[in-house]
Amino acid sequence: MVQNRTTLKKSKKTTSRRQKIADLQVNQPVHRLEVVLLRIYPRRMVYSEHYVGPVAAACGRDETGLVGIVLWGDQIQRVQVGDILVLESGWCRERNGELVVSTGRHGRLNVLGR
What we know:
By secondary structure, the chain is an alpha+beta fold. It has a single domain, classed as CATH 2.40.50.140. It has helices at residues 2-17, 75-78, and strands spanning 29-40, 44-47, 52-62, 65-72, 84-95, 98-102, 108-113. A 5-stranded mixed beta barrel has the order 1-3-4-6-5. Strand 2 and strand 3 (52-62) form a beta hairpin. It starts with a helix and ends with a strand. Mean pLDDT is 87; it is low at 1-16.
């Protein structure tokens, strides 16, 4: 019984370090998600109460599935199709029945490589 609890704790710890797309849940935080960038759609300008600037939709994948990505401001220029992206401290939402992730205001987007 004690071994099962230890194993359970270890698996939770691993999950919090690196999430998979299949593990994402709507309206829950994204702690660390690594994806390969498949496509970037044309950027557009947004003028809202909370944000003014460029935004671009994108999509990425890992071994468990596909996810939409929202790129903000300078993130659009920093990434290219084929890049391995790491989203940290972001959020996950649902749009038109599909999952979408973003760094939001406080998260980070890093490019690991191409």
